[in-house]
TrEMBL record:
It comes from Papilio xuthus (Asian swallowtail butterfly). This is Sialin. GO terms for cellular component: membrane. Residues 1-19 form the signal peptide. One of its GO terms (molecular function) is symporter activity.
Length: 470
């Protein structure tokens, strides 16, 4: 359910990145016949494709398009840290489940919001980001109760199923848009989301002790292998000062911000780059845009199995494994972006480099991505919420950066600047984790309990005499 949930998580995001190519009216498109509608305020056109599909299009310029793609992160950044802490307190089942359900309903309303006006679709995307912001940090507290330590890299690869979701969503939405119009992309992903939410609440529980249908053997194994909270004692207060002074925590935060900055730049901009620079049509666009995400998931799965095997056999310590795989997954894509700056004008080389860079980046599941569970499982959701808050600013910044660089000058030379910035960001993130990262449990994960209050000794005025018992 977590794997399917993260597939859906990105399907609800990237549906816009493929649909927006067809949502915007292109005056250079000679295959459309235009009927102007004067009663709408957004300069809307109804266009007809060669396949005889009549659909609404909007006169949004490049800056507005990137504004729409980036506004998701305005809401996303607000709920990362609260989402992780909330899951530690009330459980991931409710946090992850309700946020995905409401996000799916909003997705179904997206075409109506676009028709109502540009401001409405922007507001809806902000609300969508607000809801989905809690999902990533919410899963780690659940993993600390369900997943034994030596299996956690493999479990984290389920979070990379978001890439698999994008890999499937893009070609499927490309097909639907080509045959039924861009609105179908939102209806398809929204309906799937509602169906998944119903199944989530039926089969998922926060801990083995709460699950009504788990076998006794599995429950006893997990309760023995993993420490479980005793809810009668209340929830542990977060050691904010210790966390903010911890070098391993900052290594996770900075490296995640750098990695996700590069990832979101590709997620949001690859379809537009393929269309405007490489000149592929919408059908090829959806298929080609999906290749990097498919590769990323497969690499995440393979690297996670390898990392857990190396750790279990004792050939690599947890610290060495996390640093090795992070250096590979975040550093090498930086080198690939330098290559992209020189060869990205060629169709074959460009697609190959994008695919290879994002494929390699999938190995973060064996690196820093699950590192919060190593250093502080009790506060893994809070740590990931802090990291994702920074990365959310990076997600917005990436769309703003590309919009400013390519506005009124959407050329390959301007995209070269984008690639150099990505290269520097990736390399900085890799260097930071290799220098500061750790796989050791931190002492502040289990704050020392307060000393028990000792009862006052009754006063004995004659110490040489034995104390009388009452």
């Amino acid at each position: 359910m977590v794997l399917l949930g993260f597939m859906l998580n990105y399907a609800l995001r990237v549906n816009l990145t493929i649909a927006i190519v067809e949502m915007i009216y292109d005056e250079a498109d000679n295959h459309t016949t235009v009927a102007h509608l004067t009663n709408l305020t957004d300069h809307v056109n109804v266009t007809q494709h060669p396949e005889h599909i009549e659909q609404t299009r909007y006169h949004w310029d490049t800056k507005q398009k990137n504004h729409l793609l980036g506004c998701f992160f305005w809401g996303y950044v607000l709920t990362e840290l609260p989402g992780g802490r909330l899951a530690e307190i009330i459980g991931a089942r409710r946090v992850f489940g309700y946020s995905t359900l409401l996000a799916s309903v909003l997705t179904l309303l997206s075409p109506a919001a676009a028709t109502a006006g540009f401001g409405w679709i922007v507001a809806l995307r902000v609300a969508l980001g607000f809801l989905l912001g809690v999902t990533w940090p919410a899963i780690l507290p659940m993993a600390s109760k369900w997943i034994p330590p030596m299996d956690r890299s493999k479990f984290m690869s389920n979070m990379m199923a978001s890439s698999l979701g994008a890999a499937i969503t893009m070609p499927v939405c490309g097909f639907l848009i080509a045959h039924f119009g861009w609105e179908s992309a939102f209806y398809f992903t929204g309906i799937i989301g509602v169906m998944w939410s119903v199944a989530w609440f039926a089969v998922v529980y926060d801990s083995p002790a709460q699950h009504p249908r788990i076998s006794d053997a599995e429950r006893n194994y997990l309760l023995k292998a993993l420490p479980q909270d005793n809810n009668t004692k209340g929830h542990m207060p977060a050691p904010w000062r210790a966390m903010l002074r911890s070098a391993p925590v900052w290594a996770i935060i900075i490296t995640h911000g750098a990695s996700v900055f590069g990832y979101f730049t590709v997620v949001n901009q690859l379809p537009s780059y393929i269309e405007s620079i490489l000149h592929f049509n919408i059908k090829h666009n959806g298929l080609l845009s999906s290749l990097p995400y498919l590769g990323k998931y497969l690499c995440a799965l393979a690297s996670s199995v390898l990392a857990d095997s190396l750790r279990r056999s004792g050939r690599l310590s947890t610290t060495a494994a996390r640093k090795l795989f992070t250096g590979f997954a975040v550093g090498l894509p930086g080198v690939m972006m330098i290559v992209q700056a020189f060869l990205g004008h060629d169709r074959v080389w460009s697609i190959a480099i994008f695919t290879l860079a994002l494929t390699i980046n999938g190995a973060v599941t064996a690196g820093y991505l699950g590192n919060g569970l190593d250093i502080a499982p009790n506060f893994s959701g809070t740590i990931f919420g802090m990291a994702n808050t920074l990365s959310s600013f990076g997600g917005w910044l990436s769309t703003f950066m590309v919009g400013e660089l390519t506005h009124e000058n959407n050329t390959y030379e301007q995209w070269q600047i984008v690639f150099y910035i990505l290269a520097g960001t990736y390399l900085l993130g890799a260097l930071c984790f290799v220098t500061l990262g750790s796989g050791d449990l931190q002492p502040w994960n289990s704050p020392a309990p307060p000393a028990p209050r000792q009862e006052e000794e009754p006063l004995n005025e004659h110490p040489h005499l034995p104390q009388q018992k009452v």
